[in-house]
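pasting for ref
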Amino acid sequence: MRDLFLALRPSHWIKNLFILLPLVFGKKLFVSPENLHVILAFLIFSMAASSGYLLNDIIDYPLDKKHRLKRLRPIISGKVSIKNAFITACALAILSLLFSFLLNIYFGWLIVAYFLLNLIYTKMLKDLVIIDIFCIGAFFLLRIMSGSVVAGVVLSHWIIFMTVFLALFLGFNKRRQELAIFDEKLFAHRNVLSKYNTYFIDQMISIVTSSIVIFYMLYTVDSRTIKEFGNNHLLLGVPFVYYGIFRYLYLVHKENKGDDPTNVLLSDIPMQINLILWLAVCICVIYGAF
C-alpha cells in the first residue's frame, strides 16, 4: 500500500494548489461555501492527476525503464504491479469524474478535458517540439479554470496569462535540466529532447521570464484590479516575484536542479519563505490589511 501510495505521486499534488488562486484573488478565501467547494475541487483534481500519473507510468513503462530516475518509481521497478496500478487508476478516474460533476458541471467537463489532454499528450504531443511545453501550460490553465468555475470567480486575464507563462517557464527549465544532466543518453527515453538544445531553450526562458513579470505588473496596475481592491498595493509583491524567478534560475544553473519543479519547491527553504511572504502580502492587500 505504501508503494502504491507513492505511485500516486502525492508530492506532485502541490501543482493543484493553483486551483486556490481564484479563491484568493477573487476575495472569497473566507467566504463559505465557496472556500469549501474549492478545497474539494483541489482534492478531486488530485485524484484525477494521480490517475493520470498511474496511466502515464503504465504507457511509458518500456521507455521509463531506461531512465536513471524514473526506473526507480514503484510501477517501473516492479514494486507495484501493472494490474493493480491500472485498477487503481480506473477507480480514481471514475471517482474524480463522478465527484467533479456532482460539485460543478463545468468543473466536471474540465476534468474530462484534463483526462483527454493527458492521454493525447502521453501518446503523441509529448514528442512534438515546443508543443510539449505548451501542453504543460494547458494543464496549469485547466487547474486555474477549475478553481475559477468552482469559486464563481471571473479571473483577470493578466493572472491567467501569468499562470500559463509560469508553467512554460517551469517546462522549459525542466527540458534544459534534462539536457544538461542526461544529454544524448536520454534521447532514447524522450525523443523530443533531440530537437532541443540549451541555447534555444535559454532564449525561450528569457522571453517567458520577462513575460511573467510584465503580466504580473500589468495585473497590479490594471484599472479593474485597482477598483476591486481599492489600491495598487499589489505592486509590493513584485520583488517577491522577481526573487522567485531569480532563485529558480540560480538553482537550475548553479545547483543543477530544475528537472522536477515540485522537488525544487519542496526542498528549497528560501523559495518556500519567498512564496509565503508573497502570499502574505497578497492576502493583506486583497483583504484590506493595508
